[in-house]
Specification:
327 residues; alpha/beta; Rossmann fold; 2 domains; five-stranded parallel beta sheet; 14 strands; 22% strand
């Protein structure tokens, strides 16, 4: 196996789960590897994770504490040149997805994203078309930068090692970061790291047993559950499409919440589908969910036909009311 450089960045001074997954992949390959970390607290984070690494490098300081293309690209280029490894593994985060293609151009390197497997023989498996096509490939061009898909690997345990070599990187940039503007915690409904994914289907906006539509109550029940459990919220395509059809809608749902064949494929430990039909286009987005449960009034819905571990044939409104009492 060729020598590997594991290139990581910190978040709030710590290595995030995606970084530990990339480090775990490098250790599983069994060859020698270098470790390089950039960002706030990079030196301390690198030392805590450098066990087994032949060399360790870090770039830190105020200019590199935040994600910014100019500074990230300069730091990554310096770290890759310092190691000289022909194969670079990095997590496919927003920060690296933006900066590393430009770094590859500067180094005359090849780059591939959405990598899910690397063999000791140098064969790489990666995803195309929103994870629906998987291809195996090899490249003769070096360096070769591989961005590893978060959630596809087993995270490595931290093993302390020697202190890293701090690189002095200078970079001129015309931008300054003045702060962050984010929604309050109660308004955030997409949480990729949450243990539970709660998905709402179009049944929430249909006529209920009393012959009336209860969209306002549905919105209140769903948001209350999401806030209390801090779960992530998803939606079926049919529900987010209702806004374009003049139908009653849940106002907090957008196409960013869509889970399924034309949406996202999340990786939460557990998933709970409510008022969803459970047919294949929707279930495609659930293939990484480890435990699947569903609530639906129809005993013949798609979830019952072998697509869920547990199906509750019940009224979702009543189930959610009882759940909120328990919470």
């Amino acid at each position: 196996m060729e020598k590997i450089l594991v290139l990581l960045h910190t978040e709030d001074g710590q290595l995030p789960p995606s970084a530990l997954e990339t480090l775990g992949l490098a250790r599983e390959l069994g060859g020698g590897f270098d470790l390089a970390v950039l960002g706030a607290g990079a030196a301390a984070a690198a030392q805590h994770a450098s066990g087994g690494a032949a060399k360790c490098f870090a770039v830190e300081g105020e200019p590199f504490a935040v994600s910014r293309y100019a500074t990230d690209a300069a730091a990554c280029e310096a770290l890759i040149r310092a190691s000289g490894a022909p194969l670079i593994l990095a997590p496919d985060t927003m920060r690296f997805h933006r900066a590393l293609p430009g770094v590859a151009e500067r180094l005359g390197a090849a780059i591939d994203t959405h990598v899910v497997s690397v063999s000791p023989g140098g064969e790489v498996q990666r995803w195309y078309y929103r994870q629906r096509i998987e291809a195996a490939l090899r490249r003769g061009q070096r360096p070769w930068i591989l961005l590893v898909e978060p959630g596809s690997q087993t995270p490595a345990a931290l093993q302390a090692g020697s202190a890293p070599e701090l690189l002095n990187v200078s970079c001129n940039t015309r931008t300054t970061v003045e702060g962050f503007s984010t929604p309050i915690a109660g308004e955030q409904t997409i949480r990729p790291d949450a243990p539970l994914l709660f998905v709402a289907g179009a049944g929430w906006t249909k006529k209920q047993k009393d012959g009336a539509v209860h969209v306002d109550e549905a919105a209140e029940l769903i948001l209350d559950f999401v806030r209390r459990t801090q779960c992530s919220l998803g939606s079926s395509k049919s529900l987010v499409d209702l806004s374009g059809e003049g139908e009653a809608v849940l106002p907090f749902l957008t196409h960013l919440h869509q889970v399924g064949q034309t949406g996202s494929s999340p990786r939460h430990r557990k998933g709970l589908a409510t008022c969803c039909h459970g047919e294949e286009p929707h279930v495609v987005g659930w293939r990484f969910i480890q435990e699947r449960r569903a609530v639906n009034l129809d005993p013949n819905c798609g979830w019952v036909r072998g697509k869920a571990d547990v199906v509750y044939v019940a009224d979702a409104f009543e189930v959610m009311r009882e759940l909120l009492k328990l919470l």
